[in-house]
Write a structure and sequence with these properties.
The chain is α+β, with helices and mostly antiparallel strands and 357 residues long. Helices cover 23% and strands 28% of the residues. It has two domains: 163 residues, D-amino Acid Aminotransferase, Chain A, domain 1 (2-Layer Sandwich), CATH 3.30.470.10; 166 residues, D-amino Acid Aminotransferase, Chain A, domain 2, CATH 3.20.10. The protein binds 2-OXO-4-methylpentanoic acid. 2-OXO-4-methylpentanoic acid binds next to loops.
């Protein structure tokens, strides 16, 4: 399929952020967007790159009523030689397709979509930050567009990719976060849509997050929805525990997002001969390990959050400090290695990097 390109008129270029050190997250959007349409019987068509701007939808579009939507999050990084590269983009697009299958939506062609993404980034290459720690966040999204009010699978979709420069996801940057263990609300249950990257999971997390913010916590740690006993994920990221010398993370049981950073961390740890176990871990085990001094580090992982050390967790009114509230050695090493690979500062033994320019 050919991609039609309509460049933004130079007089209508979007204002670029003045200070790359203060980008925040998800505030700025680059000049162009990639879009394509889908119709049953016709497949994907009308691939185009256009100036970023509002999209038009009927108020009855199915996505606005029943949430038939999937999305992804990945980043483009500026290398020291000025070139631009992506981290594991095919894995993100394959996960998009898995999410799409769960939501009865059509899959995209991974190689074509990657080609479109590279073309989009090349066109907006000046938007890729040059400041260490900053990157271009990429948000592929698919929505159901048929105007209809019955609960059903839409025969029409819009797929689009927007991008924008970002800094750290959490305002505290790489400093340890405070996390509240959520024992009232639940995020997802096995057999549901928890492992799909779809808007409903995030909507389900908002109330707990708001309540946690009011109490001074950055995020909530979700427990399983059946027993409210086993640790699942942080909602914006997966979670890891350095228990003595073993790295433990909850298994992908159907209610947890299969994180690409999670998978990369498991691989890096194994490269370094650190034993990694994907197993159920109860919140009581976590608390006991902290009390006994066996919990060396806790950190969250995600594209947006990268590696986010946890300095404090609160459960049933008790507050537990991890590693004296400081960044742990392994969290730091993983952060540096991952960022090193992503920014082209360190070798890429697993072939995770895809060059754009
Ligand atoms: C990401 O890590 O890229 C995500 O999509 C999570 C979102 C909460 C920002």
């Amino acid at each position: 399929m050919e991609i039609r390109v309509e460049r933004v008129d130079p007089s209508r270029r979007r204002k670029r952020p003045e200070d790359e050190g203060k980008l925040g997250f998800g505030i700025y959007f680059s000049d162009h967007v990639f879009l394509m349409d889908y119709k049953d019987g016709k497949g994907w068509h009308n691939a185009r790159i256009e100036p970023y701007g509002p999209i038009s939808l009927e108020p009855s579009a199915l996505v606005l009523h029943y949430g038939q939507q999937v999305f992804e999050g990945l980043k483009a990084y500026r290398r020291p030689d000025g070139g631009i590269q992506l981290f594991r983009p095919r894995d993100n697009l394959r996960r998009l397709n898995r999410s799409a299958r769960r939501l009865c939506m059509p899959e995209v062609d991974v190689e074509f979509t990657l080609k479109a993404l590279k073309e989009l980034i090349s066109l907006d290459q000046e938007w890729v930050p040059r400041t260490p720690g900053a990157s271009l966040y990429i948000r592929p999204t698919m929505i159901a567009t048929e105007p209809a009010l019955g609960v059903k699978v839409s025969p029409e979709y819009l797929f689009y990719i927007i991008t924008g420069p970002v800094g750290a996801y959490y305002p505290q940057g790489f400093n340890p976060t405070k996390i509240l263990v959520e024992d009232r609300y639940v995020r997802a249950v096995r057999g549901g849509i928890g492992e799909a990257k779809t808007c409903g999971n995030y909507a389900a997390s908002l109330l707990a997050m708001e309540e946690a913010h009011k109490k001074g916590y950055t995020q909530v740690l979700w427990l399983d929805a059946v027993y409210q006993k086993y640790v699942e994920e942080v909602g914006t990221s997966n979670i890891f525990f350095l228990l003595e010398d073993e790295l433990v993370t909850p298994p992908l049981g159907g209610s947890i997002l299969p994180g690409i950073t999670r998978d990369s961390v498991i691989q890096l740890a194994r490269d370094w001969w650190i034993p990694v176990r994907e197993r159920l871990i109860s919140i009581d085990e976590v608390v006991d390990a902290i009390k006994l001094g066996r919990m060396k580090e806790i950190f969250a992982t995600g594209t947006a959050a990268v590696i986010s050390p946890v300095g404090e967790i609160s459960y049933k009114g008790e507050v537990y400090t991890i590693n004296q509230g400081k960044v742990g050695e392994l969290s730091k090493k993983l952060y540096e290695e991952l960022q090193g690979i992503q920014y082209g500062l360190r070798p890429d033994p697993h072939g995770w990097i895809e060059k754009v320019t």
